Amino acid sequence: MSSPEIEIYQNSGELGLRLAELTVEILGQAIDQKGSASIALAGGSTPQAAYRLLASDDFRELIEWSKVEWFFGDERFVPVNDDRSNEKMARECILGPLGVSEERIHGMVRTEDAVTSAKLYEELLSEKLGNGWFDLVLVGIGDDGHTLSLFPGETIPSGNVAATKAPVVATERITLTPGPVCNSSLVILAAAGAAKAIPLADALYGEEDWLRVPSQSVIRHATSLVILCDQAAAAKLTKNEIPLE
């Protein structure tokens, strides 16, 4: 892979705005080129702010949202109406306000069993995306260096979708694995806050060890990666990244 592009913003608000702008740009290009677009959504406060912007009057008319297929990068294995659900957050912040039709929303919790849900989701991706992957994948990085639902101390699973365990509340998870993420057209990693400074620097510059820092499996191997971070998250970066005004 080529080196990631790193953009540093003054605060999380500016970062969220850039994330919204770049999402529109990438999905709009895909729609122009092939008539449709696909995105895998992330959970978290920074994506949530961007989702609300995308559903606002300033953004909602910029592209044909009806031509976007909506997927998820990972999910807690909880009911969709559970407050911990990434799908619930996305429905409330962007999918509902944009009036996205149900046939274009592809949630990860598909049965009462996480392993079976992961298998069904992998089959769905094959059906919907064929031999290609997503036009855009949004991911984050945890204070412990995890990304998606790939956590330290756990071997990166095989296949394209897997059931995993988290060391925190809602331990059962479903997640994309690095393969489909890294081979997608673009991955955007958003990181905000001082707690992300050391994990982000370790993921970029530390000794490569996926068992210790799972986010390295994406950050170092994505075909095309843009890292958006605020100044707090960028505090430990050492490769002469230039802050954006």
Q: Provide the succession of SSEs.
A: EHEHEEHHEEEHEHHE
Q: Which structural class is indicated by helix and strand composition?
A: alpha/beta
Round the mean pLDDT to the nearest integer and report it.
95
Overall, the morphology is globular
Number of helices: 7
- Strand tally is 9
Instruction: Report the uncertain regions.
Output: none
Radius of gyration: 17 Å
* Spatial strand sequence of the major β-sheet: 1-9-8-5-2-3
Task: Provide the β-strand percentage band.
Answer: 15-25%
Largest sheet: 6 strands, parallel
What is the terminal separation in angstroms? Answer: 28 Å
- Fraction of residues in helices? 25-40%
Describe the structure.
The protein is of the alpha/beta class and 245 residues long. Helix content is 33%, strand content 18%. The longest helix has 23 residues, at 12-34. The chain is globular and about 45 Å long. It starts with a strand and ends in a 15-residue tail after the last strand. The mean pLDDT is 95.
Q: Which key phrases capture this entry?
A:
9 strands; 245 residues; alpha/beta; 33% helix; three-stranded antiparallel sheet; globular; 7 helices; six-stranded parallel sheet
Task: Show the helix and strand layout.
Layout: E1 5-9, H1 12-34, E2 37-41, H2 45-54, E3 68-72, E4 74-76, H3 86-98, H4 114-129, E5 136-139, E6 161-165, E7 172-176, H5 178-182, E8 187-191, H6 197-205, H7 216-219, E9 225-230
Parallel strand pairs: 1-9, 2-3, 2-5, 5-8, 8-9
Antiparallel strand pairs: 4-7, 6-7
Helix pairs in contact: 1-2, 2-3
